[in-house]
Amino acid sequence: MNLTTAVTPSKIRDMNVLSCFQAEVVLQARRQSAETAVVSLDLGLTETAVSLAPTHILLPDGQTLAWEQIEEITANELACYLIADSAIEKIQLFSEPLNRFYSLMPTASAPTMLISGIPMHRIKGTNPHRDTLSKIKAAAPIAGEVLDTTMGLGYTAIEAAKTADHVITIELDPTVTEICRRNPWSQGLFDNPQITRLIGDAYDVAEAFEDGRFTRILHDPPMFSLAGHLYAAEFYEQLYRILTPKGRLFHYIGNPKSKSGAGVTRGVVRRLQEAGFRRVKPNPQSFGVVAYK
Q1: Which residues constitute the domain of residue 61?
Q2: Are the CB atoms for 175 and 95 separated by under 8 Å?
Q3: Is position 101 within any domain?
Q4: Is residue 163 part of a domain?
Q5: Which of 90, 112, 130 is the last residue of a domain?
Q6: What number of H helices and E strands is found in the chain?
Q7: From its phi and psi, is residue 147 left (phi > 0), alpha (psi between -120 and 50) or beta?
Q8: Do 277 and 143 sit in the same domain of this protein?
Q9: In angstroms, rounded to a whole number, what is the distance separating the alpha carbons of residues 57 and 235?
């Protein structure tokens, strides 16, 4: 297990990221012949004023973007763009060890991450932020020491850390951490001392934790076809072991009304019960189940 290295606060503050949602605001201001536009440079977290010139826009830090660059961003609904040295770069990386392509996809709220084209959050009828809140609510109250088994963009760990004493979050692929460094919504992973980030496979990392360490475990694994071992009885036994008496495990599964989701849910419930959990309660709002020790 290796603790990842946090980026410095100055790099976080200086990061500008745009998507089609913000770029369209700037274009609309231009159509109205405005000299300035109030826009978010961190995907909706805050807003600031930018100056509009005939050939470009001027950012508060002195960088400029040509209107052609703004139009390019607006035309791509599936990408977020990091701005550096007045150039734009899609936030996307390829992981050679896992042979996966990661990219940051914008929504009207927090962005999600595409893993080889598949979004890692629910976005139909909801958004990644509300999706995260539903998972936190399912396991509430969140207190004590919390384990987040699969970090992803870190939204679950960041939200849990608002009330927990400490959160440990595990990420299999260091490439995902690099995506997080470029995502304004993920910066709590790097500047919140209540969050510890570990690199490794949760299946293996869990074995190193002592019995009864965590009051809550938030388990949001990739789909079964990508990480079947994180749905295995042996792994559930480890989660049961490291959970405190009367602790709770939230396990995201997927749409319980779908044919595949219903089948996976039945298997998960049975294996959790066999692992020792005294009660396993479906939570349809979060597409998961809550298991009680």
Answers
A1: 9-90
A2: yes
A3: no
A4: yes
A5: 90
A6: 10, 19
A7: beta
A8: yes
A9: 52
Q: How many C-beta atoms surround the C-beta of residue 225 within 10 A?
A: 7
Q: Whole-prediction pTM value?
A: 0.92
Angle at 106 between CA 54 and CA 170, to 5 degrees: 135
Say whether both 172 and 224 belong to one domain.
yes
One domain, residues 210 and 261: yes
Q: Apex CA 80: angle with CA 56 and CA 286, to 5°?
A: 145
Pairing of strands 214-219, 145-148: parallel
CATH of the domain at 260: 3.40.50.150
DSSP code of 226?
Answer: T
Q: Are residues 84 and 130 in the same domain?
A: no
- Cα gap 41→49, rounded to integer Å: 10
Q: At what angle do helices 67-75 and 20-31 cross, to 10 degrees?
A: 130
Residue 173 domain-assigned? yes
75 and 188, same domain (yes or no) = no
Q: For the chain, 293 residues long, give each residue's pLDDT as a single digit of tens.
A: 333 333 333 344 468 999 999 999 999 999 999 999 999 999 999 999 999 999 999 999 999 999 999 999 999 999 999 999 999 999 999 999 999 999 999 999 999 999 988 999 988 889 999 999 999 999 999 999 999 999 999 999 999 999 999 999 999 999 999 999 999 999 999 999 999 999 999 999 999 999 999 999 999 998 888 889 999 999 999 999 999 999 999 999 988 777 777 788 999 999 999 999 999 999 999 999 999 99
Chosen domain end from 38, 69, 90: 90
- Length of the chain, please? 293
* DSSP states along 158-192: HHHTTTSSEEEEEES-HHHHHHHHT-GGGTHHHH-
